[in-house]
Design goal:
With 375 residues, the chain is of the alpha/beta class. It is built from 15 helices and 15 strands. It is globular. It binds iron/sulfur cluster (SF4).
Amino acid sequence: MSGIYIHISFCKSKCFYCDFFSVSNLTHVEKYISALKKEAVERKEYLHNKPVSSIYFGGGTPSLLNTEQINEILEIIYAHYKISECPEVTLEANPDDVSINYYKEILSAGINRLSIGLQSLNDTDLKLLNRRHTSAQAMKAVVEAQEAGFRNISVDLMYGLPGMSLQGWEENIEKVLALNVQHISAYHLSIEAGTVLSDLLHKGQLILPTDDDSLAQYKILVKHTKEKGFIHYEISNFALENYFSEHNSSYWKQTSYLGLGCAAHSYNGISRRWNVADINTYIQNTDDRKNFYEEEILSEKDKLNDYILTSLRTIWGTDMNYIKKTFPEKYFKTILKNIQHHLMAGNLIQSEEKFILSDSGKFISDAVIRDLIVV
Ligand code: SF4
């Protein structure tokens, strides 16, 4: 199996925490779609004809596209790739863009899963993040999606926000769970260089929660989602049974994926590619058939580290048998040695030949993974 990611690099305005590549000038949307279609045709060899089980419109803001534009892109993909029988076709949507009619149209265009960027159901949080929607719009966006017929809806949430109280976060989760969505992605705020929040932090105008506050918020998230039957299948992702994201899982299970569009990344087990992060260069170079991506051929060590980095984030864990069979023995021995103190500290749990992050280990996953990476 394989996946296709389509990056829609446009946003009406910039959220204060975001360092993703996007531009607010929408005049190039049509040219950009033409370039995307050209890239889709020209790069199909990258997936080695593997069936595509997931198509994902991410961004940026894919819900800025109208149905015709979505149709155009999907038609090209369906015409040039081997698509599996029931592919997951996801569109990321911002609450301020959508309406019940829009939902109905994109549903008939073949979008069968939504990822709605709520981030919070608290207006103070949304203002702090410079999101374009209010909490009322966020809830309406989910309810209308359900009324339009969507039965597979994921929502994004953020915690660890400045000023977020434990009670405020708990209320947020309760409201989200009452919306009866099938999937929740919840991320701790990360302050990225070059963002407005990073500036405010350096000027001393932003107070971040303590590690203890963040851990308490994380525990509440895990507890409430579990009580509602969600499976915590990846560090930041929770889903009802049969609603694990095919798209996300392809990253974590190291399935090949092709990233189309500005700044999109691709991976096929042999190489990693990343497209130029500049709209004009991307459009011009796809037109002129010039190169618009960089490529790195993966070494054995890269492949091993990719495997650790992705597998350890999931409930399926890191399989030491697989590492032993696939990679040089010296790497296996190094990992086995480095794993011991995390086992003793309770950050990792051993289940037969697999190592899986414990609940406490999930909260410090970056540190655990860093220790296991082979240098
Ligand atoms: S809508 Fe998404 S991609 Fe666009 S600025 Fe906000 S967070 Fe970034």
